[in-house]
Every structure is written in C-alpha cells, then in structure tokens.
Amino acid sequence: MNELLIHLLKIAGVIGVMLGIVAYTVLAERWVCAWMQDRIGPNRVGPFGILQPLADGLKFIFKEDVLPRHVRHKFYFTVAPMITMVPALITVAVVPWGSYLPVLGHNIKGVIADLDVGILFIFAIASLGVYGIVLAGWSSNSKYPFLGGIRSSAQMISYEVCLGLSVVPVFMQAGTLNLWNVVLYQAEHTWLVWCQPLSFVIFMVSAFAETNRTPFDLPEAEQELVGGYHTEYSSMKFAMFFLGEYANMFVASALMATLFFGGWSLPVAPLNAPATTLAVGLAHVGVFLAKTLFFLFVFIWVRWTLPRFRYDQLMTLGWKVFVPLTIVNILVSSVVLAVMENG
Amino acid sequence: MTDAYNVQYLFVAVFLGVAIVFPLAPLVIARLLAPRRPTPVKTDVYECGVEAKGDAWVQFRVGYYVYALVYVIFAVEAVFLYPWAVAFTGLSVGAVIAMLIFVLLLVEGLAYAWMKGALDWK
Q: Which chain A residue lies closest to B101 (C-alpha atoms)?
C-alpha cells in the first residue's frame, strides 16, 4: 500500500512539475523573443509578468468556443486536440528524472515506469501524436487546415524515420533500451554525445521537425496556410494544440539530455553515481531539469533565429541527407565497436 | 512487488489515466463556463482573401502516399535494428555481418525509390 502511495505521489509530482515548466516555457518564449527583438515582452501581470500563464489560462477558459458549421465530424474535431497532448504526457513516464531518492527507509527510483523497452515505448507512443494533427486538419473540413494536416503527416513520418535510426548507435554502445540504465552507463563511462556526435545532431534536428518547430513549422506556416491544422480552432481546444506543442518540446529536450548528455549525472564526484543520500538524489533531479531547460531554451533560440525551410528542402534534408547519414553512422559504429571489442 | 516487470505497466496505465484526464478537464470546464453565441458569420469557413469554393476533402497529390510507403519500410527496419543494437556487444561476427546485409538490402530499397524519383518534391 505504501509503495502504491509513493508511486502516486511520484506521478503527481512529475505531472505537476512538467505542466508548470510547459506553462512557463510559453512565457519564456515570449520573453526570449522580446529580448532578441529588442522589445520588453510581457511585464504587466504580476511582478515581471510571471502570472501571465495564469491570465492566459483563464482567458482561454472564458473565451467562446466557436464550432464552425462546416465541421461534419464533431467527435473527431473535439478529440484531435486531446490526441496531440496525451502522447506527450505519457512518454514522460519512462524518462528518468533522477537516480534514487532515499526517503524514510524507501529507496525510490527516479522514474515512474522502469520499462526495459524504454525508447521503443517512447517512439511507439510519440508517433500517435501525428493522428491529432491529421484528424484536426481533416475534420475541420476547410482547405487551409486540410493542407496543413496532410503536410504535417508527411513531415512527421519522414523525420520519425531519422529520429528512430539516429539513436541506434547509442543503444549499440550502451547495450540497453532502458533509459535509466542508459544514464547509468553514461555516469560510469562518458556522455554519449562525445562518442556519437552525429547521432546527436540528427536527433536534435529531427526533434525540431517532429515538434513542428521553426525552421520546420510548415504545418502551420502562417504566410501560406493562415494557421495550418488549427485554423478553425478557438478557445480551449486551440490552447490544447499550443500546450501539446510545448509538452512535446519538453519530452524532446528531456530525451536529448537523457540519451546524449548523461541525464541526471554530472562527471564530478558525488553526482556521477546513483544517489545514496537524499541531498544527492535531489541534486540529480536538479541536474536533469537544468539540462532539459537548457534544451528548451535552444528550441526557443532557434525559433527566433532561423527562417522556415521550403517543403522540398524539408523532404530532401530528411530523405536524401539524414536517412543515408544515419545508416552510414550505424554501419561505421558497428564496425568500430566490433573492432574495439575484439581487437 | 514493484520490482516485478508487469507492475511497471500498471504505472503506465495509471499515468495514462492521469494523462487523459488532464486535457479533458479544461475542455469540460471551458464547455461549462464559456459563452456560446454562434452567428452565421462566426461559424463560417475561415477565409483569407477570396472565399474558398467547394468541398475541402479533395484529391491530393500522390507524392504523400509514396512517402508513407517508404516510411513503412524504414519503420519496420528500425524495429528489427533495436534488438540487434542491444545485443550487439555479445554478438558473434556472423550475426553482425548478417545484420549488415539486411541493412544493405534496405539501402537498396532507398536507392531504388531515390532513382525512381519518389523522393523528389516537384
């Protein structure tokens, strides 16, 4: 019973912290973009504007939810925003937030579901997110959303291939798909970004494409498609798409930190091994969150720096550059690892 | 008890429940609190410039299907590659070479699609 309670608390903590970060990433994005464009940014709601997410949330709740009359399948129209949000939340269950938290005689593992198929679980669930966008575009029964949804499905499945193949060398080296053990491997040896830099670059760029962020935000390219798949959405349903995008960014950032930058570990004395005291356990969670926040900042930084790709450039980059490169990376890694092992 | 493998999926199930309730709750609350005053103009198709004519569910270019087909091949390949990658450090040379041949066969598929122009966006 006690065990179950601990796990429920863990789930509540993870969901709470994650949603807090997601809400404040929206605000951080506005601050960072204001700073980069030499503007002031939101500063009216609360001190320095820190209550802005609360104000936005209330506004979304009280806004009229317009259901366009050309929508023929109201069920799919309503369910689509949820489908973009749910996979992002579920995938966090297998991401290790820390090593152990020794509290009151319990040694709590810093991950909700310690699955041995970790990364496969993430790819399987995350790929469901594309259904939300396709359903939104299709059920809107309007031309801009339809084009946005169709574009998005082609883009997301293309970069999913790159994403899936790019991390294979990482698991060849770590010898496990369990993300907690991948972090342990990095704590004992070295961060995998030093061994697999090409994997990391391809993974990061593909993650940008998967989360529909600039320079790959073609599904919602506002100059051509108005708002893309969410053109016909308003009020809370629109907010769901918006939050879903930021939740996906959080997952992508957490994965980059976990797979390539040692997750909860740092290469200094007490932080490079699983925690035996509560202080070190909490420090591990802090290290993980700091790395994740750094990558969230990179997402924002890139968005306000780079212009959007053309569609043919996007597809060429995915299929003609990244897919061949990932395969070469797998072949070279397998040969190098085999030689190092046997000779 | 919590070390048992299947129990981990119980946590995933609990997490799934929480993850579904979270987006559902604001939608329900907004449904109860938000005003609803639809007018013909408000519920019309979004337009930007000229009004859109005809149905939105139209034929779209076949290129999208080709990408989907190539995707299926490589998604399946990735699923086969993961178990091989995990077991890699303990594999014999023969097993490694067998897998490399499998990968090369799929590369041939990519090369074929490439030469057929399936990957070109015209």
A: A331
| Residue A200 pLDDT greater than 90, yes or no | yes
Domain count, chain A: 1
Helix (H, G, I), strand (E, B) or coil at A73: coil
Write the residue in B18, B67, B74 that is nearest to A15 by C-beta: B18
Cis previous bond, A53, omega within 30: no
Calpha distance B19→A90 (Å, rounded): 6
8 Å CB contact between B52 and A107: no
Q: Does A2 touch chain B (CB under 8 A)?
A: no
Q: Which domain holds residue A160?
A: 63-342
* Cβ pairs A/B, distance under 8 A: 217
Residue A228 within any structural domain of the chain: yes
For the beta carbon of residue A169, count every other beta carbon within 10 angstroms: 25
Domain-embedded: residue A6: no
H or E element: which one contains A100? strand A100-103
pLDDT at A23 over 60: yes
Residue A30's nearest CA partner among A214, A303, A306, A307 is A303
pLDDT(B1) > 50: no
Q: Does the interface ipTM go beyond 0.95?
A: no
Q: What is the DSSP letter of B45?
A: P
Tokens 């790819």 appear where? Answer: A123
Q: What's the CA gap between A12 and A273, in Å, rounded?
A: 26
How far is the CA of B108 from the CAs of A309, A332, B101, in angstroms?
28, 18, 11
Phi/psi of residue A100, nearest 5 degrees: -135, 155
Give the domains, in start order, of chain B with CATH numbers.
5-115 (1.20.58)
